[in-house]
Amino acid sequence: MFPDALEAVGRVEGLPLTSPATPTLPDPDEEEGQREVVPWTSPRRRAGRYRHSLQILKPFRITHKHQHPVDNAGLFSFMTLHWLTPLARRAHKTSSLSIDDVWGLSCHEASEFNCQRLENLWHDELKQKGKDGASLSRVFWRFCQTRMLVAIFSLLITMVTGFIGPALLVRALLEYSQSAEAWLPYGLSLVAGIFLMELMRSWSLALMWAVNYRTAARLRGAALTFAFHKILRLRSTKDISAGELINICSSDGQRVYEAVSVGCLLAGGPLVGILGLSYTAYFLGPTALVGSAIFIFFYPAMMLASRLTAYFRKKCVLVTDQRVRLMNEILGCIKFIKMYCLENAFAQNIHTVRSEERRILERAGCVQSLTVGVAPIVVVIASVCTFTLHMVLGYDLTAAQVSPSVNSF
Question: How is residue 102 annotated by DSSP?
Fold first, then answer.
């Protein structure tokens, strides 16, 4: 009833239906049926490795030769997710969606191809660094470094435009509204500048998330497939428990996805910190250092909370492994358990292990909820402390100073 997804995508996109020795990628500029399979390591393949990705830089595209609409999308359609509009309209019209309404998997997100590429990079890492010096994190970075750099560049644009609008243009507009002289073209230009800054900030932020989510899906699919292949080749799993295998294929895979999707946000931290501290210190004076000190104190507290969450996660893996082994024992010996009426004893053991696992998960959830709840109020605390100290010291405080400073915080 449902054909194989990879086979269907391969026929539409021109991918080979057999697993090649080296990863290959279809050339989007060639017609279907005439595409040549180019090895990943060939010079011509390296020269055209970004040929398909560069097509997204076109503002608008009218091509429909790819199987998935995201591969036909232009820049504006990709960053605003406009390519999902037909699916949203169908869902709104029919009030439901079926498997036939959803597009097939894009060949660029296929786990088979991405796993082959990741394995190729891993073999290159082994040749260059050796078995002892090889780093899987470095291989992950090489796998998605170009897309991550594009996401970081989009994030920097977001941060700069998000700072210029509230900190500079809004301040100038407040000063203009309080001045006695009114020059209409100047006021309109400030309003237009604020609109353009917010538009650029919104679009660049949307582009960053669109790139990150697609990159994270590729890396997670490649890493999980790579892990599955490794598990299948293991002769014995004595050194690896069932709980650890389940954790690798579920929790760790999700952590890889989250690290790629939100990891580039770390690059915007230093830039925002420098711009915010410089701006508030220039317009408010030394009292702005109080708000910055609150933020600086907040970061170690959040690091401690994240360490506690990681500690509870590692502790929960051991309990999960114990529960999985106990369940496997029950399923394997269910006849003997029924024969000797040991249901209550094993049920009590399972209940004890599950209670311990639940208790650890509740502690981790409390720590995570505390970080999520405290983070939004740091801005309020920093603003109140800064403005209170500013007024206690006898300095003047105007609306043109308060609003941009709060936005900067």
Answer: S
SS3 content of the chain, % helix, strand, coil (to 5): 75, 0, 25
List, for residues 183-192, the tens digit of each pLDDT value. Answer: 888 889 999 9
The two tokens of residue 270 are 């230093």
Residue 209: alpha-carbon gap to chain centroid: 7
Cβ proximity of 207 and 78 under 8 Å:
yes
CA-based R_g, the chain, Å: 28
Residue 152, pLDDT score: 92
- In angstroms, the CA 22 to CA 118 distance is 11
Give the residue among 84, 65, 63, 85 at the shortest CA–CA distance from 74: 63
Supply the angle between the helices 184-233 and 136-163 in degrees, to the nearest 10.
170
SS in 3 state form for 106-129?
CHHHCHHHHHHHHHHHHHHHHHHH
| Backbone CA torsion sign across 41, 105, 152, 204 | positive
| Two structure tokens written together for 307 | 């360490």
**Mean predicted lDDT score pLDDT of the chain:** 80
CA distances from 225 to 213, 261, 273, 393 (A): 18, 19, 39, 62
Give pLDDT tens digits for 277-330: 887 887 777 888 888 888 888 888 888 888 888 888 888 888 888 888 888 888
Rounded Cα distance, 192 and 197, in Å = 9
Number of H helices, E strands in the chain: 17, 0
> CA 236 → CA 131, 231, 245, 249, distances in Å?
21, 9, 13, 18
Q: Which amino acid is at 192?
A: A
Could you give the C-alpha distances from 313 to 68, 94, 236, 257, 374, in angstroms and in order? 37, 42, 26, 17, 21
pLDDT tens per residue, range 73-93: 888 888 888 888 888 888 888
